[in-house]
Amino acid sequence: MSLRGTGQGGTLARLWETVEVLGSAGMLNPSFTFNLGKGIKKWGSTPAGGFWASAQRRPDDVGLIDEAGPPMTFREIDQHSNAIANGLAAAGVKTGDGVSLFARNHRGFVLSMVALNKLGADTLLLNTGFAAPQLAEVVAREGSQVVLYDEEFAPIVERGAPDKKRFVTYGNGPLGDPTIFDLAGRSSNAEPAAPSRHGRTTILTSGTTGTPKGAQRSVKSASLDTLIGLLGRLPLCVGCKSFDAAPAFHSWGGIHLLFGALLSNTILMRNRFDPEDTLRTIHEHTPDVLAVVPVMMQRILALPPEVIRKYDCRSLKIVAASGSALPGELALRWMDTFGDNVYNFYGSTEVAQASIAMPDELRAVPGTAGRPPRGTIVRIIDADGKEVPAGVTGRIFVGNDNQFEGYTGGGNKEIIQGLMSSGDVGHFDQNGLLFVDGRDDDMIISGGENVFPREVEDLLADHPMVHEAAVIGVADTEFGQRLQAFVVLVEARACSADDLKKHVRDHLARYKVPRDIVFLEELPRNPTGKVLKRVLKEMVIEVRQEG
Question: Is residue 3 over pLDDT 60?
Answer without folding.
Answer: no
